[in-house]
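User: Please predict structures.

Assistant: First:
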Amino acid sequence: MSHRPASAAPHLRRLFELLAAGAPAEELGAVAAEARRAGVGAEDLEEVAGATEAALRVRNTLRQHRRRETELTALFDTAGDLAALRDLDAVLRSIVRRARMLLGTDTAYLTLADEEAGDTYMRVTDGSVSELFQNLRLQLGEGLGGLVAQTARPYASPDYRADGRFLHTGSIDAGVLDEGLVAILGVPLLLGSGSGGQVIGALFAADRTPRTFAPEEVALLCSLADHAAIAIDTARTMADARLALAELAEANAVIREHSAAMQRAAESHDRLTDLVLRGGDVSDVAAAVAGLLKGEVAVHDGAGWPLTATGGHGGGFTDGTEHPAGAEETTGAEGAAGGEGAAGGEGAAGTEKTTGAEETAGAEEAAALVAAAESSRATAHAVFRDGRWVCAVLAGQELLGCLVLYGRPELDDPDRRLFERSSVVTSLLLLLRRSVAETENRVRGDLITDLLTAPDRDPAGLVARGRRLGIDLDRPHFLLVAHAGDAARERLADAAVQYLFGCGGVSAVHEGAAVLLLPCDGTGPGAAARAAAGQLGRLAGVPVTVAGAGPAAGPRAIADAHAEGARCLRAMHVLGRDGGGACAAELGFVGVLLGDDHDVDGFVAATLGPLLEYDARRGTQLVRTLRAYFGCGGSLTRAKEELHVHVNTVVQRLDRIHALLGPGWNTPEQTLELQLALRLHLLSGG
């Protein structure tokens, strides 16, 4: 009985079963050996061997397809992440993790370019254990990453430490060594295509053992790098879009705010214009601006003193009344000039209703407002000083006053512009008021001139004219005579008009001096003179000397008061009291002698008569020598220097004086009378 060879069919079926089960290549290769042992014939054995080779090819093909399917799934998942991009870091971590998984490497990481620093840094790592490696920074051209960024091409190194194609640095090699990496594959993150593409970073996969990366692995990592570049670019675009939207929203808000501000400004302008056209005053403007700005507004004059106020501000005037020149309610000029009180007089302000501290505080407040107004004029804008906004009120470059806003520490641009525009309306009103006042004052000034030059010609007519002009000459008045030098005469005249504005007084220029007639305020002529000297000096910008007289009622009494004031003014000049204010009663013996009913000429003639006659007859200078002798404290040496003569000449002249006046001429009592007579003689023009 002949022996038949075994069939090949079971072995072929075995190949299909192993292939379907995804068995490894070793099991597929073992099927041919099993068929040989089973006694399969040579011809069938050859068929089994051919089928085994075909099964291995099919297995490889299936493996490649499954791998490709896995890669495509990962890429699709990455694309889905990009489509739902919300967190860039999360997307980049996902890409790096997938790169490590798909390539089966020990670690993967991504670097990005730092445009400000000019290098690249680690953005995301997966599988890294070295802190030194995670904090590496690479310059362009350094390490494998620097080469990738420089050339914009993929590079794979099977053994990084032995690879000489790129620049090794101590810091990078130390980081790679600390991580234990050997084989590294790096591909660029490119924005754009072709030669114009921009490298923004690189994606890496690395092993801690030597490895050669297949072309398909390089291609896969490049695909993931492309997705990472898209994610970064998309995130940047979205950030730019969000920024643009924010800027657009801000611009839209600014436009709406500007539109609202323009509408509000137009309404405010119409309101202020209507107020002016209806004959409103500065107090009405202050109240309107206070209502518009939800604050408290005060108007002050060019010297810082209040003209009107709203809500309890304005340096002591809380009822909105205007600042009365020389009034008892702390005009502040008294505080500025009161310290110049005279010898033997009533002092700074001891008999007044306000204390020196209050007057000083008022003067300091006024000075602070003037300084703030000057700053506003220099900057052409309102300024914030001492918890309040101050805006200069100007006519050209002349400072008419200032607007002061309280209760609004924060003032936005629209409200600030509204506040500044209000100063223009205020300046128009102040100019109008001043023009009216100047016109009225010129008419009243004619009355003052007639009072001083011919008070007895028609007293009743002068009183009647005064009543028609709003001046009751039968009421007690103070008469002030002010002088500031010929160069400042016009400025002093303008300052006098401003000073008297609103108080019922009147001024005129007479015999080179400003004459001010103002109602009595219950203080005294000295206090009124000091108040006027301080504020007139600020308004005129030069020191002003003011002499006061009165109270006086009726044309003749007013004319006599002017004569007394003029004599007092000359006395203040001789006594070195320029720039202050006083009345005759405050000048000691000189004041007493200058007052009415005192024979000054007779006193001078009785005391100095022999010397005056001798000088007039012989052309000598005995009176001048005696004045120099007393002025130098009885020193012959200093007297001869002042007289520019030899000391013997001084001795000879004193001997002549001794002979003319008698042996008691240099006793204390006689010396006092002689010195007083010399002063009076000098005051009379001698």
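Second:
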Amino acid sequence: MPKKRSGGGLSPTQQAAKFLGVSVLAGAVLAGIALPAVGALGLAAKGSVESFDALPANLKTPPLSQRTAILDSEGGTIATVYSRDRTVVALKDISPYMQKAIVAIEDSRFYEHGAVDLKGVLRALNKNARSGEVSEGASTLTQQYVKNVFVEEAGDDPTKVAQATQQTIGRKIRELKLAIQVEEELGKKKILENYLNITFFGQQAYGVEAAAQRYFSKSAKDLNIQESALLAGIVQSPSRYDPVNDEAEATKRRNVVLTRMAQVGDISQAEAEKAKEAPLGLKVSRPKNGCITAVKGAGFFCDYVRAVFLSDPVFGKTKEDRAKIWNQGGLTIRTTLDPQAQKSVQQSIKDHVYTSDDVATAATIVEPGTGKIVGMGQSRPYGIDVKQGETTLNLSVNNAMGGGAGYQPGSTFKPIVAAAAIEGGMPATKSYSSPYEMEYPSPVAACDGKQWLNDRDNPAKLENENETEVGPYDMEEATAKSVNTYYVQLISDIGICPVTQMADKMGVQRANGNKLEQTPSIALGVTEVSPLTMANAYATFASRGMYCTPIAIESISQRVGNKSKSLEVPKSTCSRAMSETTADTINTLLKGVVEDGTGREAGLDSRPSAGKTGTTDERYAAWFVGYTPDLAGAVWVGDPKHERKMVDITIGGVPHGKVFGGAVPGPIWGDMMSGALEGEPVSEFNLVDIPDSKEKDKGRGDGGRDDGGNGDEDNGGNGGNGGNGDDGVIGGLIDGGTDNGGNDGGFPGNLFQGQGNGGNGGRRG
């Protein structure tokens, strides 16, 4: 139906002037449309046509906020998130009954008047005057649409929402002028479509499509007469006419709408009466929003994707800019999460660690050479019900991305030390005396020409696991056995700076965002890191020395209205951290760990693998970090609160006197990697020949804890057995600092109890 202007074809400006003139002359008309006295005009008191013309006439319509779908790498849905649950649909995809119902009850003369309905204003004035109260409004559907645009633009800011809905003459006049513009530019059908997509229907449902799904679990195009009438009736007061919480009140309101539809001729009286007799027929779909809806245990990965979006400048210069886009929604985010790998991660975790256990586990898998995160999970379920053991703390990532303060990696850091040494020209056959017990060598060169000094009066000492662990050892055997004294002698020889520089090249940073400390004890894995950090660092070895920054997002498309556009996403940045020869040497060292060392329980029978075990001070945490040429993964097990030692403990229904990196994290790693790689071609490492510096017993044994320090994938050596004793790892800067050699504080006497290996042979540490 063609548009008509009220007032006998008057121009928009004349319409407005007449409206204002009638209102003022009538005296109470403004009160009759629920507005305060003229004194609150907010414009010049003259209210003239010239003043009206000075108002801006461009309605800036923000894109409607919609659902965001987070998908895995194959397009399967991981989760749906939204600030406002809305799916924008075209008018042709909205039931004709719904279109008629909303017009009948909200603005029955919608197709007959312009932006303002003067007849409606006078009718409302007359009715309100007779009743002595505001019983009827006079806003047209177009004016209501403009008001909803103001509310949408305000977002979730309560102050802006209040401003957008405040009952002042100034706002109503601005609303009127913009409504005139909208009528001129859009036409009736588009206004109706926009209105049905923007308005709030209660129960977190914005727009008619979300409302149809929420109340009836069907599409808006399939709504029948009584369903359409119910939804149309809700709009006036979503809380009062909420059919979920007050069926009787909602039924009465629905029947009012049906009566009105019959009065205006949209349906027959018989149809109206039949529809009134029908039950509400609700089939409610409860609101489901956020990463708590994630499938395949991917809630934490979903939350990581959100954190990436809100923190990466590629999505906006400021945090507010990024948050605005995220809250606007309408995004389809395809991630790097591989469904097969994710399923394997979750199944392995479920098989080995129970949600009710005193300790937890977190595991992450990345793809070498690309930085793609293909799997991420943990034993504690994602959620906010603490009593049910749920948490939103992502144990796999750094603090800034939703994680905690990190965990000491123990001997899984040692391969980084070995990589730094080899890259600097040291042969893998290098031997040190490696006594059972020794003082920290002093001084040790640090960065920027500084030195670390041991305390002369009370020098810090360290030990190996057992008194039988006495060198000399070369790098292969020392790595296999996690000999602490070997690695401290090694770092004192090459200096601390090459190690921290190598760690930086491999993306190893503290989980709290601080820099690595310049202290020799870094060789023993005392710096808190996250599983994602360690998995991605070891991926550097797997990719023969190329480090790639981790990424979680492959692509993003954004729907604005009925159109879609692609957004730029962060790309992995790859750089060479070490030579191929250095990486190949580390791969050779660490391959031995899973073949006949402490990592045997993690070894993959079907394909080559390499890795390193790690156990930290007093067994608060145990690790296995390993890789194949195709995937790298890290598994951490421990108490996130750092309170429960893993001694005399049952994990996953299996009792343990002492937990070793090989005995709990190792099998988790082995199972998850086997499943993740099932059906994939077998790839081989590029290995090097490392001559034995002496005859060694190859039957690496069961001795103590697996590892006292860190073992990095870089050159972590052939992981023998235990490195740390029960109290093994030194924590932090021991003495002197890097600035002036002053004492940084002593250590408790029990801090240096048994760190060494525990021998070769039996189960891995």
